[in-house]
């Protein structure tokens, strides 16, 4: 009997070009639920493009893609929590306004959890986004994205703009709010920072998978950290 869990993300021969230039060049992936996967790669390797396709916000691609068992689109968006790399909240919003908006938009949103995360991050309830620092805005966006009970979380560079101490706090916040049976795909250049929380990694180069595997197995096989392995692989 096959008791393997169904892949939470399945991608076959996925291709996407921008004005004739390939960003994804025949990508194949099968990711099971119950893990945090680090999506890594050099600039322009296709990380954001992949996340946007899976999130259902980018059209006109070729090949096959399924997320939480569905083709990316309006239905899958109800099961997938996407944190884009750019700010997506209005400047005028205070945390309570954004929480109210997410409550209206998403059936799986847990407003109490979001409020607890805002407190956990020590964010000011009386300041709007325009009055917050970049790191504060990122923390608010993460609070919202992680307070959905989604099957799949797609986080694009969630800790790029924050200081090292805040990165640890954010990663702890993410971990605390991550259900065991969900899948998280998290893109980042800050490999050293996310290394302690990822179960497996995907290295992309030029729109294809260069290397993929279980984090512990890769560390054992190569005898170095993922950060060192990344530097070695991309230097060659
Ligand atoms: N809107 C767009 N129009 C044209 N080309 C684009 C567009 N978005 C991305 N590209 C191109 O697609 C390729 C992949 O870009 P993508 O943003 O997916 O890479 P990335 O791995 O996320 O990069 P980075 O690490 O720099 O954020 C790049 O060559 C980029 O120039």
Automatic annotation (TrEMBL):
Record GO terms (molecular function): ATP binding; ATP hydrolysis activity
Domain ABC transporter: 9-231
Gene3D superfamilies: P-loop containing nucleotide triphosphate hydrolases (3.40.50.300)
Domain of life: Bacteria
Keyword ATP-binding belongs to the record: yes
Keywords, comma-separated and alphabetical: ATP-binding, Nucleotide-binding, Transport
The keyword Transport appears for this protein: yes
SUPFAM superfamilies: P-loop containing nucleoside triphosphate hydrolases (SSF52540)
Full protein name: ABC transporter ATP-binding protein
Classification lineage: Bacteria, Bacillati, Actinomycetota, Actinomycetes, Micrococcales
């Amino acid at each position: 009997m096959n008791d393997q869990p169904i892949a939470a993300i399945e991608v076959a021969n996925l291709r996407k070009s921008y004005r004739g230039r390939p960003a994804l060049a025949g990508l194949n992936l099968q990711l099971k639920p119950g893990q945090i996967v680090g999506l890594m790669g050099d600039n322009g390797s296709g990380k954001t493009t992949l996340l946007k396709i899976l999130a259902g916000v980018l059209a006109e691609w070729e090949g096959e893609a399924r997320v939480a068992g569905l083709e990316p689109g309006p239905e899958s968006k109800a099961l997938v929590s996407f944190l884009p790399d750019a700010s997506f909240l209005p400047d005028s919003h205070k945390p309570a306004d954004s929480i109210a908006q997410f409550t209206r938009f998403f059936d799986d949103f847990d407003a109490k959890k979001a409020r607890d995360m805002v407190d956990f991050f020590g964010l000011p309830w009386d300041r709007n986004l325009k009055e917050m620092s970049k790191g504060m805005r990122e923390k608010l966006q993460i609070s919202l994205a992680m307070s959905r009970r989604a099957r799949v979380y797609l986080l694009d560079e969630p800790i790029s703009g924050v200081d090292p101490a805040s990165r640890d706090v954010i990663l702890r916040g993410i971990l605390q709010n991550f259900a065991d049976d969900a899948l998280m795909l998290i893109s980042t250049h800050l490999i050293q920072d996310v290394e302690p929380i990822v179960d497996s990694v995907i290295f992309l180069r030029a729109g294809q998978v260069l290397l993929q595997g279980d984090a512990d197995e890769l560390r054992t096989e190569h005898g170095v950290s993922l950060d060192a392995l990344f530097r070695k692989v991309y230097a060659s």
